[in-house]
Specification:
The protein has 8 helices and 4 strands, in the order H-H-E-H-H-H-E-H-E-H-E-H. By secondary structure, it is of the alpha+beta class.
Length: 220
């Protein structure tokens, strides 16, 4: 059955705001987003997380399969179980798996196998990539799953920042332990682990610099 087609309209901008000024305002807001590894124990409501996930769910996806699942963990015991398993993988990475070049690239960021933020952040949001489409979305086959889930994660991070919260994209490798700990089906693969919360009062981040616009944009 084909989808019915409906009229589409973009919500108008506030009076006196142009596309250019709106785009600039969004940039000025999102440019302050940083990956945070030090979280406050200040509570974050389920409603706030729910709206961020809802924003992520507006992402485009191949054939509208929406191949993502956001598993949101606030239980302290479960968070600690995830930390223990993640740190075991991270120790393997730092001690045996990572080549010298990779370790050298990570050195300025001062990262280690200690992942205290997995206990500290009030929420751990684990994004899974669905290898089969949900019922009601055509065949079980999914298309462009990595691209689709990646876009959804980007929208989630933007929503988290817009809400005044902080996050970190954490990818312990391999991440198969997350499926086991969280009881997810074989058809779901862990894609990224995102701690979410308010930054700690004394939170610091590396003084990194992003590429200039002329280094990332080409106009033809």
């Amino acid at each position: 059955m084909p989808y019915p087609f409906i009229a589409h309209s973009v919500p108008p901008l506030p009076t006196a705001q142009t596309a250019e000024s709106a785009a600039r305002a969004f940039y000025e807001r999102v440019r302050t987003r940083r990956s945070v590894r030090f979280f406050s124990d200040r509570a974050v409501s389920e409603e706030a997380i729910r709206w961020c996930v809802a924003a992520a769910g507006t992402a485009p996806s191949g054939a509208n399969k929406q191949p993502w699942r956001f598993v949101c963990v606030r239980d302290a015991g479960l968070k600690h179980e995830i930390r223990v398993a993640a740190e075991a993988e991270e120790r393997e990475f730092y001690m045996r798996k990572a080549n010298p070049e990779w370790l050298a690239d990570l050195a300025p960021l001062d990262t280690t196998s200690d992942k205290a933020f997995l206990d500290d952040a009030p929420w751990l949001v684990i994004v899974f990539k669905c290898m089969k489409a949900d019922a009601g979305y055509g065949s079980e086959q999914v298309y462009y799953a990595n691209e689709s889930v990646g876009i959804a994660v980007g929208l989630f991070l933007a929503a988290v920042h817009h809400a005044g919260l902080a996050a970190l994209t954490h990818t312990p490798s391999p991440m198969g332990f997350l499926s086991k700990v969280l009881g997810r089906p074989e058809s779901e693969r862990a894609f990224v682990l995102i701690p979410v919360g308010y930054p700690a009062e004394a939170c610091v981040v590396p003084d990194i610099h992003r590429k200039r616009i002329d280094e990332i944009m080409v106009v033809r």
